[in-house]
Amino acid sequence: MPVLAAQxxxxxxxxxxxxxxxxxKAKTMPSGSSVDEYLASRASTEQLxxxxxxxxxxxxxxxxxxxxxxxxxxxxxxxxxxxxxxKLGESCxxxxxVRGKELVVYLVAExxxxxxxxxxLGRHKFxxxxxxxxxxxxxxxKVLEQLVVGSLTEIRRRHG
Length: 160
What we know:
Layout: H1 5-8, H2 35-42, H3 45-62, E1 67-69, E2 73-76, E3 79-82, E4 88-91, E5 94-99, E6 102-106, H4 111-121, E7 125-127, E8 130-133, H5 141-159
Antiparallel strand pairs: 1-2, 2-5, 3-4, 5-6, 6-8, 7-8
Helix pairs in contact: 3-5, 4-5
């Protein structure tokens, strides 16, 4: 079942005594740039095929169209999260980027269930919401899809 961006977005709490909380303008926001142009300019031939497969997977799971976030992240959906300042930040719900010879998928993978999936995923590195790999063929794509679904579920749980 697709996870819609509307389900992920957190509405700023409102009080009759305060004005709405402002959304902080982050560096990485939807840019309006072309996803196809970005991929053509950054991805090798092999990476381009993997990127197209990632677009299809992430589009199917989120129900969202790909959007460029900043100059180098292909994002799907969005959500808002509270900052220590009391303002709200905004990010893509999931996405990916070409980083040299590696691809990076952005997702939350915390907890026992997600850790167990990471152990079954295949050849990769994982660090602070970044899943690095060289070829999609090195990964079990069904496990990758489960990781993305779990990440979106966790984002929705945390941020409404």
